[in-house]
Specification:
heterotrimer, A alpha/beta (409), B alpha/beta (627), C alpha+beta (199), A: alpha/beta, 5-stranded parallel beta sheet, 26 strands, 21% helix, globular, B: 627 residues, alpha/beta, 6-stranded parallel beta sheet, 25 helices
Chain lengths: 409, 627, 199
């Protein structure tokens, strides 16, 4: 059996490991356009904020491919997939055939199409090299600008602030992390960042950049010119699926997968940021491009590729971050649109030193936002993920003393 | 709290002020109670022992782990010893309070207590006669001096029995002699209790508990009774007076001084200073319309009984009252004063004052009161409180005050009946009043605040059972509106008729927690009038929300006196089913009364009604079946 | 292999296990000195209050596969197959709290620890007292538990005993586990106290 894995992120690696656990003799090849050893992608934020050294990024020893008996094909990007021939063509012209294919090619930063975005000192925040180049550039920077108040922009802004730079953040929506948290939590987080030197501009975006080789100004959509000598663009990510023939493999935003993470084309699987599975909280297909889902999906996809049928229960969006004095955890469908028949409860607030918001559909918990007191967040996540009917009063889940045993009968 | 949104109190002012306190970031007793969960099961069951330094020890209630302490004491002994030490602590507290009053009496007699005086000479003489002090043609202060000496001897000297035990019906005294629990000295019984619970002394769980009965009786018929009687001599025998209760008694436009604690020695002097023209003028000069004295806890009850001073709240309200921001000064003496209060007051302008040489508190200024300086100190403090009035920030008084009548001493009850308890007995015989229950005791965050008190009282009066109350219960019931003559509308037809004809409410406020002895005096009078023992009467006691060691002692002296007593919260005894069975069943055969534990006041009401009907039947009176 | 088995119905909430655990994970290994250490060692078993405020010793289950291990961003969490223990390497931990988000039991805490790099906040949880066990001692929480809520037993024996117990329960009255009278009484009283006035 020949397995081909596109991508050496956590999804690809966990798939390779799962295949190897079940099949000691299968051939496994792994393709990646990054030459750097497999590393912890989320950790680039800690590298940017200076709390961890770049050298700590690699997840395994250099012998990881050897240990897993995987043939690495590095520095090569997949450019075409021939479903009938069961083969993948690489940018350098090489052709790799397979019996089972895993598309774990991850996602790329969403590009900004604006004049001047090719100037020096304009960065994205996706790879270890993005961060390495940002860190090399921060010396002498007087004003940093971050575009976007989502997770990426947010973490970039936090990292640059920790590097001691004055940072301005441009947000098109009303408050930061609007996709993840409600307005109350968003404001608490924004105030914490502002107290530590961030200035936030709401309702504006960058229309272009000016500079002589290196960026010196951003031009806003309202015509205003902002001085800046370092820019990070945080406009989200898109699955890297250019090579996937849409007429043969069903693709929505990501590759549509069944509950074994198999695509519409038999023998082709997807895991990680490329896979569009059912979101448990939303109860519809959704791409949850997050590390822990990639890790689990990779493992389950690998097991299925090796012939053991293992069901994937669905994905759940979630995130946890520490922002100065705040610990912020978001789980599931934490900031739903109104009018969906959902019920929300909240307690705490800025003055109380914590905030908690829970979102229910009927007696099922579907989302949560926690600011501080996050240690029991995993219990809430398990409730959401397993769609456990909640039989205790809301107050029990909200209380300081909440713990696993409060749920036992 | 398993459900923090669940309401922790049945009182409107309590809930509104708790909301205010939370907004002000005040940590309350409920927060601390939640933070203590789970509370240690060994301790909760009475199975941990810290008596000696071979320990600490604990016994596994599941039977697998250790079954004895290092010394070899088993669960029965450890549980009994722990309970006995609670009784000793409770007896010591009330009785030491009594001793302080006797010392004031002694100082008054010696002319060394300016501001204090003998207010009720007739009562002084009655007491003197009971104590065998010569009365005829003697100077009143000389009698007072001798009485103080005689009472002191009840504390310390070796006697066959303490003097006031003679007030009990003859049958009861004979029973005490027979069982060997006639109290011989107030301090002696507490001292002996502590001795017996030392490692290697009394290791019979039954004999330990028998001594606990005697120890409690030394308080009920000794220290506490002396406290009440001497308070009456020094400050007057209470008579019914209208008053007001709840947080609404605080006044936005007046200097608010709140007294907290138990002993009237300090609060009485403060109350005198508050009505002096000099102080009132000073208050007006500071822009206040007057000086408003209010009480919390039992020192408030003492003032309410004798002066009609308003009560702002009971035990669980003491922190919340401060969160009104309207208290210019809180003056405390001792017992049940949460050490958190100083911290709460930091968020407001309130000056916190401690006054007793034996009670200090963090965050309070200490101004020690003694009989010789009390008057001067009281005026100084009131002056300071007035000076603090302009420092108020925002004030939140969430409710209007509730009217109530208090001040029912046994003397005034019997007086209202025409000088004899006979009309009450006739009403009981006729079945108009089925019986009486004394509801006493504290608040406890384990039980929804005041729910136990109010619910039980309501169920009893609507079933024609007269309720007398003391301590924190009396505030709960007054706030619930049971203490106005119109409250007879909430009573059953018989009780309504009797109380209506006497113009009294169906729930009578007998005073502070030391004043539980008034209940002993009342039931003795009823028993004597009927020619029976106390345990034959259709009466019972109840402490639906008790928390303190004093409450344990009160419960034990009630049971030892023949009054079956209900407890709301479970005492720490379940580690020994032998002790549980003795207290809830076995004591019936010893003293004719037992304990019963039932947190739910609805069920407790049924239990108490059944008990009363059973006693009626045994007396040959008409009895109802209760279900 | 012996493992710590939790019998939650026997927990009385005394928190002795927490003190013993923190002491066992201190530098000085004595309660009186451990509380003086900087950083102060923390308990890795957490006695929480259940619905009726009964005690519940919440301890890492050392799941297999472990959700925390799968969620760890840095590979700091690993499984030691020989002792069936999920371990956190404080040198690799970056205090991101991803494991707290993954743990369905809420047993992971974050603080400085005597065995972590100085000054660094890291994820801390039960390590099955590996250093004690290697010296022939039982885990600290088990050693101090007086009620049998935490026991150290052959897992195969525990499974067999549990199977027998379940099998017996199939026949009514044939030996269901019953609580001692006093324990049943205090639990009933506590439930009743909490319920008072809530209906």
């Amino acid at each position: 059996m020949k397995h081909l894995i596109i991508g050496n992120g956590i999804a690809g690696l966990n798939a390779a490991r799962a295949i190897r656990e079940l099949d000691g003799t299968a051939e496994i090849a792994m393709v990646s356009d990054e030459r750097f050893p497999p590393y912890s992608r989320p950790m680039i934020c800690q590298v940017l904020d200076g709390s961890q050294p770049h050298a700590k990024l690699p997840l395994y020893g250099e012998d990881i491919y050897q240990t897993l008996q995987v043939t690495p094909v590095l520095g090569a990007r997949a450019v075409a997939l021939d479903v009938d021939a069961r083969a993948v063509r690489l940018a350098d012209g090489r052709q790799l055939d397979y019996d089972r294919l895993l598309i774990a090619s991850g996602a790329d930063a969403r590009r900004l199409k604006a004049p001047g975005s090719a100037l020096d000192n304009i960065f994205y925040m996706r790879t270890e090299s993005d961060v390495r180049r940002q860190l090399a550039a921060v010396g002498g920077v007087r004003q940093a600008l971050v575009l976007g108040g989502g997770l990426v922009g947010f973490k970039a802004a936090y990292g640059l602030l920790k590097q001691g730079l004055p940072v301005t953040m441009l947000i098109t929506s009303g408050y930061p992390l609007a996709m993840q948290v409600d307005a109350t939590a968003g404001r608490i987080i924004q105030e914490e960042l502002e107290a530590n030197g961030l200035s936030v501009r709401v309702g504006v975006s960058a229309a272009g950049f000016e500079g002589n080789g290196r960026v010196t100004h951003a031009v806003l959509d309202n015509g205003e010119r902002l001085t800046c000598d370092l820019v990070v663009i945080g406009k989200g990510v898109l699955p890297s699926l250019d090579f996937v023939p849409r007429e043969r493999v069903a693709v929505d935003l990501g590759i549509v997968v069944d509950d074994c993470l198999q695509s519409s084309a038999p023998g082709i699987y997807a895991a990680g940021d490329t896979a569009e599975a059912v979101d448990i909280a939303r109860q519809k297909r959704w791409v949850n491009a997050i590390w822990p889902e990639a890790a689990v999906q990779g493992r389950i996809a690998g097991q299925n590729m090796a012939g053991r049928r293992v069901r994937y229960p669905g994905s759940l969006s979630r995130n946890v971050m520490r922002v100065y004095g705040l610990d912020v955890m978001t789980l599931g469908y934490a900031n739903p649109d109104t009018g969906e028949g959902l019920r929300t409860v909240q307690s705490g607030g800025k003055d109380q030193g914590y905030y908690r918001r829970l979102v229910f559909r009927g007696d099922i918990l579907v989302g949560a936002v926690l600011i501080n007191r996050i240690e029991q967040g995993g219990v809430l996540r398990a409730l959401i993920e397993n769609r456990v009917p909640i039989r205790v009063p809301d107050g029990v889940l909200m209380a300081t003393g909440f713990n696993f045993s409060k749920l036992l009968h | 709290m398993s459900d923090p949104k669940g309401k922790v109190s049945v009182t409107e002012d309590g809930l509104l002020l708790l909301e205010k306190a939370q907004k002000d970031h005040i940590e309350t007793v409920w927060d601390r109670h939640a933070a203590q969960q789970p509370q240690c099961g060994f301790c909760d069951m009475g199975l941990s022992c810290r008596v000696c330094n071979m320990g600490p020890c604990r016994v596994d209630p599941f039977g697998e782990g250790p079954q004895t302490g290092v010394c070899g004491a088993d669960a029965d002994i450890i549980v009994a010893r722990n309970l006995c030490r609670m009784v000793a602590a409770g007896a010591a507290s009330h009785s030491d309070h009594g001793r302080d009053l006797v010392e004031v009496l002694e100082n008054v007699a010696a002319g060394k207590a300016p501001g204090y005086k003998i207010r009720d000479e007739a009562k002084l003489k009655r007491l003197a006669e009971e104590y065998g002090v010569a009365v005829a043609e003697r100077d009143i202060l000389a009698i007072a001096g001798d009485l103080a000496q005689a009472m002191m001897e009840d504390y310390g000297m070796r006697r066959k029995k303490i003097t006031l035990a003679s007030r009990a019906p003859a049958q009861r005294q004979a029973l005490w002699e027979k069982v060997g629990i006639m109290p011989r000295g107030i301090d002696r019984e507490t001292s002996e209790m502590m001795h017996r619970t030392h490692m290697g002394v009394d290791n019979g769980w039954q004999s330990l508990l028998v001594q606990a009965l005697r120890n409690a009786l030394s308080d009920g018929w000794g220290g506490s009774m002396i406290a009440t009687e001497v308070s009456d001599i020094l400050f007057g025998v209470p008579a019914p007076k209208p008053t007001m209760v709840n947080a609404g008694v605080l006044k936005k436009d007046q200097v608010n001084i709140v007294v907290h604690g138990h002993n009237p020695v300090v609060s009485e002097m403060i109350s005198l200073a508050c009505i002096s023209p000099e102080m009132l003028d000073l208050a007006k000069a500071k822009g206040a319309a007057g000086i408003n004295l209010a009480g919390v806890c039992c020192t408030g009850n003492e003032l309410l009984m004798r002066r009609g001073i308003a009560m702002a709240g009971n035990h669980l309200m003491t922190e919340l009252i401060l969160s009104t921001g309207a208290v210019d000064m809180m003056i405390v003496d001792y017992q049940c004063i949460m050490p958190s209060l100083g911290k709460v007051a930091e968020s407001y302008h309130t000056r916190m004052i401690s006054t007793s040489d034996k009670a200090r508190f963090p965050g309070m200024e200490h101004h020690e009161f003694h009989p010789d300086n009390a008057k001067e100190k009281a005026f100084d403090l009131v002056k300071t409180a007035i000076a603090n009035f302009p420092n108020r920030k925002s004030v939140y008084i969430p409710v209007e005050p509730q009217a109530a009548v208090g001040g029912f001493s046994i003397e005034t009850i019997v007086g209202a009946l025409g000088g004899t308890p006979q009309p009450l007995i006739e009403a009981i015989k006729a079945g108009k009043i089925r019986g009486a229950v004394g509801i006493v005791g504290c608040n406890n965050p384990k039980i929804k605040h005041d729910y136990g008190h109010v619910t039980l009282t309501k169920r009893l009066i609507e079933n024609d059972i007269l309720v007398v109350d003391t301590g924190c219960v009396s505030v709960a019931n007054a706030k619930a509106g049971f203490k106005v003559p119109g409250a007879i509308e909430m009573a059953g037809p018989g009780l309504k008729e009797v109380c209506g004809s006497l113009g009294i409410p169906p729930v009578l406020h007998l005073g502070s927690c030391v004043d539980n002895v008034r209940i002993l005096v009342l039931v003795s009078a009823l028993a004597n009038a009927l020619g029976v023992d106390i345990s034959d009467l259709p009466v019972a006691g109840s402490a639906p929300e008790w928390y303190s060691e004093k409450a344990v002692t009160i419960g034990v002296y009630c049971v030892a006196s023949g009054i079956t007593t209900h407890l709301g919260p479970m005492p720490p005894i379940t580690g020994s089913m032998n002790v549980v069975k003795l207290l809830t069943e076995g004591l019936e055969g010893v003293v004719g009364a037992t304990f019963a534990v039932e947190p739910d006041p609805e069920k407790a009401a049924v239990f108490l009604r059944k008990h009363i009907e059973k006693k009626r039947k045994a007396l040959g009176l008409e009895a109802r079946s209760v279900s | 292999m012996k493992q710590v088995v939790v019998n939650p119905e026997k927990c009385v909430g005394c928190m002795q296990c927490m003190l013993a655990c923190a002491t066992a994970h201190s530098k000085t290994l004595q309660l009186f000195t451990a509380v003086q250490e900087t950083p102060r060692p923390g308990a890795r078993v957490h006695v929480g209050a259940g619905r009726f405020n009964e005690g519940f010793p919440n301890r890492c289950r050392h799941c297999d596969p472990a959700p925390c291990q799968l969620a760890c961003l840095t590979g700091a969490i690993s499984r030691d197959a020989a002792t069936a223990t999920v371990l956190i390497n404080p040198e690799r931990c970056i205090n991101c709290a991803s494991c707290a988000m993954a743990c369905p039991y809420g047993v992971i805490r974050f603080h400085e620890d005597p065995f972590a790099p100085p000054g660094q906040t890291v994820a801390v949880k039960c390590d099955n007292c590996g250093s004690r066990v290697s010296q022939g001692l039982v885990p600290a929480c088990v050693e101090v538990c007086k009620t049998g809520a935490l026991v150290y037993e052959e897992i195969s024996e525990v499974m067999k005993a549990k199977t027998r117990q379940v099998a017996r329960c199939m026949s009514a009255g044939a030996g269901e586990a019953t609580l001692p009278d006093g324990v049943a009484l205090i639990r009933a009283a506590k439930q009743s106290q909490l319920a008072v006035g809530t209906e």
